[in-house]
Amino acid sequence: MITRDQLDTMFESMATNTDWDLSAPLLWGYFFTDASPEKLAQAAPLLEAQGYTVVDIFQTETDEPQEQDLRDLWWLHVEKVEVHTAKSLDARNQALYAFAAEHGLGAYDGMDVSPPAMPH
Questions:
Q1: What is the value of pTM for the model shown?
Q2: Residue 13 has pLDDT above 70, yes or no
Q3: Is the CATH code 3.40.50.300 the one for domain 27-61+70-112?
Q4: What dihedral do alpha carbons 13, 16, 20, 21 form, nearest 10°?
Q5: Are 28 and 82 a contacting pair, CB within 8 Å?
Q6: Per-residue pLDDT at 120 exceeds 70
């Protein structure tokens, strides 16, 4: 589980090491895992109904022998453009951990963040 302390550190690092405006919307990616792509596909529209955009359902690709167990793991990647603080992201993570448990998914695996794509 991702702790609030880890999120505090992450936000401090983003403030120090990027030129992102942390008070403006950023593109947040959220990841779920399961051995069954079908279970992830069933969860995808439920997340879309909550305002997330489904990016992909994909299988782990690795040739590393130490990562052989990951080859059977499937990922659901969803995104949402929103503003977060460490506190609000902690609340979002807790909700997504609960979503994964409620829908019998293997795990909510965490998030990533980047500036939102610029319109063309």
A1: 0.90
A2: yes
A3: no
A4: 100
A5: yes
A6: no
